[in-house]
Write a structure and sequence with these properties.
Layout lengths: L20 H15 L16 E4 L1 H8 L9 E11 L9 E11 L7 E6 L7 H11 L2 H6 E6 L15 H9 L7 H22 L8 H14 L5 E6 L1 H12 L4 E7 L8 H25 L9 H14 L2 E2 L8 E2 L1 H12 L5 H12 L4 H11 L10 H12 L8 H14 L4 H6 L2 H4 L19 E8 L5 H10 L3 E9 L8 H13 L7 E3 L2
Parallel strand pairs: 4-5, 4-6, 6-7, 7-10, 10-11, 11-12
Antiparallel strand pairs: 1-2, 2-3, 3-5, 8-9
């Protein structure tokens, strides 16, 4: 599930009263234990205060001035809404959520609100609203304002911040294919240090950053904006959030688009193996595409040459020609860059150029790709993408479904043979939530009985959320239709005309496509 650098990551001028982490942790600790047992039945319609909006076009416009779509007549509002820390105690302590609403032209009473989530978990919904306002088809923007909120623990909504920058540097630089006992021990040690640091920083409060409570937050936001039903576009992890919302509040489902669906049926081992297999296949597709370019591709055997580059970087990490850059690219940084580029076919030329330059001794392109993925900012600091990703993923995971340490070691050995670039690292990542020390709120089973039709989209060449996940989600949801795109990369809308037409018709007129519609690449 993709994590991206945020447009607002350093935009503290837009912060609307979000509280600090330490004081929040102290306040929330008493509330967290009750949230672990969150019910899966919808509560009564909440009484909520309206969102406090203020015009922030002047602050956002300079951030997007050079991007395609910036010439649209867009206005932006920034907002704050308070939600209960524990929804079973609606009159208890609250935390603030940060929102951005993007509108084309002047809003009218007839303008609806389209909620969006970009994935992660850890991706900023506020950033997503800004980005989609630049790229979405204009007929959709004429009917809807795009509303993005940073989920609890993310971005500017009481961000979880418990992994220091130096530890993040270690995480992203460490051996990406740990197979020896020493390498696996080192990876386990890193996971234990992350878990211990976050538990020390937040205590029991760490458990309130979970998807079930975020779905409940989203229903309060729906009510706060005066919407009888939720209109929603979720990507990747956003499909987990959207389907959880549909399970908790089926009667409040309006038009839900779930693109790049995360498999609701697989256990953590199946998810980890699916991603390893997906990225391995995506790299092979990238390699074949690169070779087909002939003179435009600097590699004749990309997989073999990547292996050689990783071996060389292990012996001597690769410097960058970027002025002022002192870091050197280890194998971990290189694989992170590869993962980042495989999410989007448009990034493949950049990956090819970055690998070629690294082979010649310049890792600037490698760092550019890797930093965009990890949330590293130009000043060397990090957004809280990975802090939130750890916290939410682990809070959502039932520890009983996680393998024991020895099984993880065995999987690393097995998957390193089957998925040479990505298998061992994917297996060892299972340890992250096995040692997480915080209350859990596992995701509910999701059939959303009684909901309106829901549109689920899967892509055949999706490395992060393989197509099988969309098939399973559409099959589990009682009233869902599946659209399959025969393309490459992570997410499909609005990348191709067939998918775009189907989604637009659904969002604008409420007409879902026929089930099992397939769109060509």
């Amino acid at each position: 599930m993709r994590l991206r650098r945020g447009l607002l990551a350093s935009g503290s001028v837009l912060l609307v009263g979000a509280s600090g982490c330490t004081s929040f942790a102290e306040t929330a600790a008493e509330e967290a234990a009750a949230s672990e047992a969150a019910a899966t039945a919808a509560p009564a319609e909440p009484e909520v205060d309206p969102v406090e909006w203020s015009d922030c076009t002047a602050q956002i416009a300079p951030l997007i001035a050079e991007q395609p779509g910036a010439d649209r007549d867009l206005g932006f509002e920034c907002g704050r809404a308070d939600v209960p820390i524990d929804h079973d105690e609606p009159e208890g302590e609250t935390l603030p959520l940060f929102l951005v609403r993007a509108s084309l032209g002047e809003r009218t009473d007839q303008t609806g609100n389209l909620f969006v989530n970009p994935g992660g978990p850890g991706g900023s919904g506020a950033d997503a609203a800004i980005g989609l306002a630049l790229t979405m088809p204009e007929p959709v923007l004429q009917q809807y304002s795009v509303v993005g909120f940073d989920p609890r623990g993310v971005g500017l909504s009481t961000p979880v911040e418990c992994i220091p920058p130096d530890l993040k540097e270690e995480l992203f630089s460490t051996e990406p294919r740990p197979t020896t006992a020493q390498e696996i021990d080192a990876a386990f040690d890193l996971a234990e240090r992350v878990a211990a640091g976050c538990a020390e920083e937040y205590g029991e409060a760490l458990g309130i950053f979970n998807t079930v409570d975020t779905a409940r937050d989203m229903d309060r936001l729906r009510a706060a904006l005066g919407e009888e039903q939720l209109t929603y576009l979720g990507y990747s992890y956003g499909t987990t959030l959207g389907s959880t919302y549909a399970e908790l509040f089926p009667e409040n489902v309006g038009r839900l688009v779930l693109d790049a669906a995360v498999d609701p049926d697989g256990d953590p081992v199946a998810h980890a193996e699916g991603q390893a297999a997906g990225f391995e296949t995506a790299f092979d597709t990238f390699a074949a595409s690169c070779r087909d370019l002939r003179a435009g591709c600097p590699f004749d055997r990309p997989r073999i040459q990547l292996e050689r580059l990783l071996e060389a970087a292990e012996q001597q990490p690769i410097p960058s020609a970027e002025q002022g850059e002192t870091r050197r690219a280890t194998p971990g940084v290189i694989v992170t860059a590869v993962v980042a580029a495989l999410y989007d076919q448009e990034s493949w030329p950049q990956l090819s150029q970055a690998l070629d330059a690294a082979r010649e001794g310049d890792a600037a392109g490698i760092f550019s790709l890797a930093d965009g993925y990890t949330g590293r900012l130009e000043d060397g600091s990090y957004s809280n993408l990975f802090d939130a990703n750890y916290a939410i993923n682990c809070a959502d995971t039932d520890p009983e479904t996680l393998p024991a340490e020895e099984e993880i070691r065995a999987l690393a050995a097995e998957w390193s043979e089957e998925y040479p670039i990505f298998g061992a690292g994917s297996a060892v990542s299972l340890y992250n939530c096995a040692v997480w020390d915080a209350p859990r709120t596992p995701l509910p089973e999701r059939d959303a009985e009684g909901s309106a039709p829901i549109m689920v989209i899967g892509t055949e060449g999706d490395p992060a959320t393989p197509l099988e996940g969309a098939v399973d989600m559409a099959g589990d949801l009682e009233n869902a239709v599946l659209l399959t795109w025969q393309g490459e990369g992570h997410t499909a809308y609005p990348k191709t005309e067939c998918v775009t037409q189907a989604v637009n018709r659904y969002l604008l007129a409420g007409v879902a496509p026929a089930d099992d519609l397939t769109c060509p690449a």
